[in-house]
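User: Sequence recovery, please. Input:
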């Protein structure tokens, strides 16, 4: 690999987004583990509540015409319906929306949120293996963790190639970065909410 290739790789937007979200991502991972979602089905159901809340807040982005023009299969990538079906499987009520949802973001900021949502599908490959021990699968209770059509890695590579190829202004670069950070922070809030309301 030449020095030029190395410089080009280090400038890739997706790699930079991974770097700047390392801290909120690590914080979220630790929080998930602290709530032991794979200990019991009841614990896992609260995790699905958080997943549903997060995915339902992104439905409008996944179906946005401007974003779909950039990522044509974007609507099919949304997992809100799968998470809702999982809640039904787990005999858990669909939660009410939580105040503070993303509203009408810029294109760049929206792509930062979708970057986080799409990236979580890679981690879902490990999570669904643990869900199996609870008697769940990609057709019952853990649908939202199932492998997307065409495969996890392939879908991620296509999304990243598109994201890295977009021409952004300095302002848009800042927005996509802030969007990714905000997405991790929002899921953290929703996860806390889901487990706090467990006894309600």
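Assistant: Recovered sequence (200 residues):
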């Amino acid at each position: 690999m030449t020095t030029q290739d190395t410089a080009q790789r280090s400038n890739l937007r997706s790699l930079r987004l991974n770097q700047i979200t390392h801290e909120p991502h690590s914080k979220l991972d630790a929080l998930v583990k602290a709530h032991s979602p794979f200990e019991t089905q009841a614990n896992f159901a609260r995790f699905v509540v958080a997943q549903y809340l997060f995915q339902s807040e992104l439905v409008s982005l996944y179906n946005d015409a401007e974003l779909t023009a950039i990522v044509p299969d974007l609507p099919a990538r949304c997992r809100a319906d799968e998470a809702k079906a999982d809640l039904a499987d787990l005999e858990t009520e669909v939660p009410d929306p939580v105040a503070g949802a993303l509203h009408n973001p810029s294109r760049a900021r929206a792509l930062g949120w979708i970057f986080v949502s799409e990236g979580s599908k890679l981690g879902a490959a490990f999570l669904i293996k643990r869900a199996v021990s609870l008697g769940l699968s990609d057709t019952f209770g853990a649908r939202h963790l199932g492998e997307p059509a065409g495969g996890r890695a392939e879908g991620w590579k296509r999304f990243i190639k598109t994201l890295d190829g977009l021409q952004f202004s300095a302002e848009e670069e800042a927005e996509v970065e802030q969007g990714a950070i905000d997405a991790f922070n929002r899921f953290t809030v929703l996860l806390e909410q889901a487990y706090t309301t467990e006894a309600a």
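Residues 1-10 have pLDDT under 50 and may be disordered.
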